[in-house]
Specification:
Mean pLDDT: 81
Strand content: 15-25%
Distance between the termini: 45 Å
Low-confidence stretches: 22-44, 329-336
Oligomer: single chain
Number of helices: 12
Helix content: 40-55%
Order of helices and strands: HEHEHEEHEHEEHHHEHEHEHHE
Length: about 350
């Protein structure tokens, strides 16, 4: 065993002991941090106050009512540090059934994500609107692909003047074939399977044209669904949408010119317009519903160890660390459809 190998084993052992200690402490010592979902209350700290003078007597007639400022942030998938699908769907359902809620204004900050989760949110918002309540979507710095998909459920889409949006298209995953690399390194692999396409996409087997065609057909079906969502939400024809749906992103001005959004303005003006013009209830309470972002030391340390091992493996195989990381992510489970 050479000196470099011994050093690598020692470093790994030390890091492993540290993470085991942190994990044990989080399990047996003190408060659990298993969930990072914030339970929103009616506390004043959760209310957005617009800097205006309103008729206090008029406000009394709807003092128990409120508008929800619902934040959708991060990559759209089942759960990550910024996003939680279960929490979001539950919150939309709660708002639908709350007679005091008069509407939703969504603040969006997302690069997109998985088709399944984006469509679930889109359908939940459509269901919310069956009550007669309205939904506005406001885009921050970025609301692309799956973010735009969700925004199409809104009655109106607003954007900051520096917003990037669009990216109407679908990625069905990618095939990475490292079989030749493994062969060159003297590593032999075999996948035992029944059905010639059962191991489709596995990185240790070469992909075929038939397999590429299969994935393309699935991708095209999701793409057609995305096109339908845009045409339905934006009241545009398919002929109008298709030239815009080549995966490109748009500035706010470009999106407005192409009828993909309705207004370019500030978040505050969007809220004012919704409460004063749409609802005709100036000064109505605006309550914030946002998933709280939490990062504990254990998650941070786990990520650091994962990155270290990825870099070491990539160096040994002679490939970029970024490529190795993507390979690891793809090998964690089946391929998913992403609209990003």
């Amino acid at each position: 065993m050479n000196k470099e190998t011994k050093s690598g084993i020692i470093v790994f052992a030390v890091l492993l002991l540290v993470i085991l200690g942190v994990t044990a402490a989080s399990i047996f010592g003190g408060k659990s941090s298993a969930t990072s979902v914030k339970i929103t209350t009616r506390a004043k700290s959760n209310q957005i106050v617009l800097d205006k003078d309103y008729d206090k007597e008029a406000i009394k007639s709807y003092k128990d009512e409120y508008v929800a400022a619902l934040y959708i942030q991060g990559v759209i998938q089942q759960e990550n540090q910024d996003y939680n699908q279960t929490w979001l769907l539950s919150k939309i359902k709660d708002l639908k059934n709350d007679s005091r809620n008069r509407g939703i204004v969504i603040y969006m900050e997302t690069p997109g994500g998985a088709v399944y989760q984006a469509d679930e949110v889109y359908l939940a918002l459509q269901d919310y609107k069956t009550t007669g309540k309205k939904v506005f979507a406001y885009m921050g710095t970025l609301s692309a692909s799956g973010g735009y998909y969700i925004a199409c459920a809104a009655n109106e889409i607003w954007a900051n003047r520096n917003t990037l949006t669009g990216s109407i298209g679908v990625i069905s995953g990618q095939f990475i074939d490292i079989s030749k690399l493994l062969e060159d390194k003297g590593i032999r692999t075999a996948i035992v399977h029944s059905g010639k396409n059962k191991a489709m996409g596995h990185m240790t087997e070469a992909f075929t044209k038939e397999q590429l065609d299969i994935m393309q057909s699935i991708c095209d079906e999701c793409y057609e669904q995305f096109i339908h969502v845009v045409t339905n939400g934006r009241k545009m024809t398919k002929a109008e949408v298709l030239p815009l749906a080549d995966g490109r992103i748009f500035t706010a001005r470009q999106a407005l010119d192409n009828k993909l959004i309705d207004h370019i303005d500030t978040w505050e003006h969007c809220l004012s317009h919704f409460t004063e013009t749409v609802l005709e209830k100036p000064g109505i309470r605006i309550e914030t519903f946002k998933k709280e972002k939490k990062t504990n030391f254990r998650d941070y340390l786990t990520g650091q160890i994962s990155d270290l091992l990825t870099r070491q493996t990539a160096a040994q195989l002679g490939i970029p660390a970024k490529a190795m990381k993507e390979i690891n992510q793809l090998s964690d489970g089946p391929m998913y459809m992403y609209i990003q």
